[in-house]
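Late entry, written up from scratch paper. The run itself happened at the end of the previous shift, but nothing got recorded in the book at the time, so transcribing now.
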Amino acid sequence: GPLVVKLPRAPGAREQRWAHLLCGPVDLSETNLPGTTAPAGLESRVVTLEQELQTLREQLQRVYTELGLSQA
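Output as recorded:
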């Protein structure tokens, strides 16, 4: 039988990934494939990043204002 199996392509990945079958079938729930993790974790990371981005934008605007510059 086959010795390897082609894994689903990860979003944004250029290369195809493979896993060996020497120790038995591959359990995709144990792989670190994007899309196999809980979407809630990703959503919470996006929310955190959006909040951090907003804070950085506000800080940058204050710096521009203090220096008397207009933001381009």
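The radius of gyration is 22 Å.
(Scratch paper discarded after transcription.)
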